[in-house]
Structure formats: structure tokens, C-alpha cells
Design brief:
The chain has about 325 residues and is an alpha/beta fold. It is about 35% helix and about 20% strand. The protein has two domains: about 180 residues, Rossmann fold (3-Layer(aba) Sandwich); about 110 residues, K homology (KH) domain (GMP Synthetase, Chain A, domain 3). It contains nine helices and nine strands. It starts with 11 loop residues before the first strand and ends in a 6-residue tail after the last helix. The structure holds guanosine-5'-diphosphate (GDP) and magnesium ion. Guanosine-5'-diphosphate (GDP) binds next to helix 1.
Length: about 325
């Protein structure tokens, strides 16, 4: 970074890519840092589709985390785009935080990631996440496995539980040390670079994934079609509400059936839970109406991918 960018007070700023196999806890990590829910998390892999920038600002620094889609072997167009987005974000950052799962021994997916970043010229910091799932003795053995796996790198290795927020502060201090001096790039109040509309769609998608589990895998996309204030009726003692119309898109008719559920119970549940999340996001009452639409094979259609905001090249 050039000298004129050096801030007199020694302020630091930098972009940090979060890299890791799907499901290792990248989004959980981001939500913990920011202290509010921004990235969606779910027990089902590959929920993070778009690159979400999450901004952590304090007196001394501004760290901009880029939540990348999990790196995996692409199966179709959407998969390829996810991998491209992950690779691109590695090329654009000042440091990499790579997360491995302490609850598993390093496997082929981890080796794939290690190869991808091994020769990077920028600082890499390693987090062994989910240590809360292991006994201390087990954990020590597992840590040794990872240290062997990472042999030849001189990256610092931290252990943490993103879920319980244990070990995360040390990790953050280390990242702060590794980013360059530079000016504040985003205003302090800004925690995320995506508009609320995007987050609303993500919260709905998350509830679909959580409630339908394996039945509706990744073939679901959500678009927010309309957001408007609902005017209060005269003499009403209700609070003002925001009306939101959203469409959930699936690939098969059978999936539509699952999503709607018997007598509409599933869709009601998804609607209720995502409405509560959206209410917290916008800090107000929400009326949410959900539609389900079948668009065969949307994942392989470029125009559809663009429509739902999945970045291509
Ligand atoms: P991502 O795909 O890497 O973004 O992973 P997520 O953040 O969505 O997390 C995947 C799952 O792992 C979720 O069910 C999380 O609650 C869970 N998880 C994340 N971090 C931890 C952790 O430190 N401990 C435990 N026990 N579970 C975690
Ligand atoms: Mg994620």
C-alpha cells in the first residue's frame, strides 16, 4: 500500500477472504463478529451463494470479511459459479482466514483448499472451528493432525468455536495485526454491503432449507417482488407494517408440494419464521406473503442465475 494511504493515527484496513469447505462455520463466524445476524447459516451445506462483505469497524481498524461460497467440486452451472466466486475473492484480498472443522480429520476437500492457497503471497490465518464438539484430549490429537496436514506453511493456527464465540477474539486480534495500514473504507455504521432486500430473500431461503432439510436441496431461489408500507386504517391501534411479497422458486412440481405442505402448513411455518427474522432486520412489523413457483432447471439457465443475483464472470 502506498504511503499517501497511510493514516496518521496508524489506522488499518483490509479485506479478508473467509475460505473453507461448505458447512465449516464461515457464516456463523461472521455473525458472531458483527454481533447480529447477517449471513445465513444452516446445517445444510452451500447456503452462502453470493459474496457477502461484512464490515467490522473499531477504533484502530476496519476489517472487511468476504464470506465466500464453500469450495467444492462443481456439479452444474451454479456450482461452477460458486467456485469461481470463491477463487475470485481470494485474488482480491489482503489476507485469508481459512476455516477447518476440528470435528473431522483433514480430508480431500481440505487438501483441495490447501492447494488452492498454499502459494499465496498474502498472510493466511488458520482457524480450527467447532472445538466445542470434542473432548480436550480428542481435540489435542485432532489439532496435531491438522498441524501435520499444514506442514510446510508457517501460518498461525487458532482453535475456536464460532457458535459459542470461544477463541474468536484472539483470532480477530491476529487478523488485525496482519492487515495493512490504510484508511477507513466504509462508514462505521455500515455492517454489510448488501441491501436489506437481499438479506430478506436470504432469510426466507434459510427457512426453506432448515424446514425442508434434504428434500429441497439447493434448487431453491427467492426473489423479493414488492416491499411497501401498509397504511394504517383510521382509528386502528395497530402499529404500521411493511408488506413484503416474495416468490420461492423451485425446479420441480414435487418440490412445490413439499414446500406448501399439507393444507399449507409448511409454507406457513416458513413464512412465520422468516417474518420474525425480517422484523428484527428492519426493526418493524412485517406482513409477509409467499408464493411458490416452479421454474424447471433454473440452476442451469444463465439468465435465471443473473435474475436471482448469482454473480457470473
Ligand atoms: P458455512 O457453510 O461455512 O457458512 O457454515 P455455517 O456457518 O452455515 O455453519 C454450518 C453449521 O455448523 C450450522 O448448523 C452451524 O450452527 C454449525 N456451526 C458453526 N460453527 C460451529 C461451532 O463452533 N460449533 C458447533 N458445534 N457448530 C457450529
Ligand atoms: Mg455460509
Amino acid at each position: 500500500m502506498s504511503l499517501e494511504n497511510l493514516n496518521q493515527e496508524g489506522f488499518k484496513s483490509g479485506f479478508i477472504a473467509l475460505i473453507g469447505r461448505p458447512n465449516v462455520g464461515k457464516s456463523t463466524f461472521i455473525n458472531q463478529f458483527i454481533g447480529e445476524k447477517i449471513a445465513i447459516t444452516s446445517p445444510i451445506a452451500q447456503t452462502t451463494r453470493n459474496r457477502l462483505k461484512v464490515i467490522l469497524t473499531n477504533q484502530k481498524s476496519q476489517m472487511i470479511f468476504v464470506d465466500t461460497p464453500g469450495i467444492h467440486k462443481p456439479h452444474h452451472l451454479l456450482g461452477e459459479r460458486l467456485v469461481q466466486a470463491a477463487k475470485r475473492s481470494i485474488g482480491e484480498v489482503d489476507a485469508v482466514l481459512v476455516i477447518f472443522e476440528a470435528s473431522h480429520s483433514p480430508g480431500r476437500g481440505d487438501a483441495f483448499i490447501l492447494n488452492l492457497i498454499r502459494n499465496l503471497k498474502i498472510p493466511v490465518i488458520v482457524a480450527l472451528n467447532k472445538w466445542d464438539l470434542l473432548e480436550l484430549r480428542q481435540f489435542k490429537e485432532r489439532k496435531k493432525e491438522y498441524l501435520d496436514f499444514l506442514e510446510g506453511t508457517n501460518w498461525p493456527v487458532f482453535s475456536c468455536s464460532a457458535l459459542k464465540r470461544e477463541g474468536c477474539d484472539d483470532l480477530i486480534s491476529e487478523i488485525e495485526k496482519k492487515i495493512p495500514f490504510g484508511p477507513q473504507l466504509y462508514p462505521s455504521y455500515m455492517k454489510c454491503d448488501h441491501p436489506e432486500k437481499f438479506l430478506m430473500a436470504e432469510f426466507i431461503r434459510e427457512q426453506v432449507l432448515i424446514n425442508t432439510r434434504e428434500e429441497i436441496p439447493h434448487s431453491v431461489a427467492v426473489s423479493i417482488d414488492k416491499i411497501q408500507d401498509i397504511p394504517l386504517k383510521k382509528k386502528s391501534n395497530q402499529n404500521p407494517r411493511t408488506g413484503i411479497l416474495a416468490t420461492i422458486c423451485v425446479e420441480k412440481k414435487s418440490q412445490k408440494g413439499i414446500l406448501i405442505g399439507k393444507g399449507g402448513t409448511m409454507l406457513k411455518k416458513i413464512g412465520k419464521e422468516s417474518r420474525l427474522q425480517i422484523q428484527t432486520l428492519i426493526n418493524g412489523n412485517v406482513y409477509l406473503e409467499l408464493f411458490v413457483k416452479v421454474v424447471p432447471d433454473w440452476r442451469s439457465k444463465t439468465s435465471r442465475l443473473n435474475e436471482f443475483g448469482y454473480e457470473g464472470n
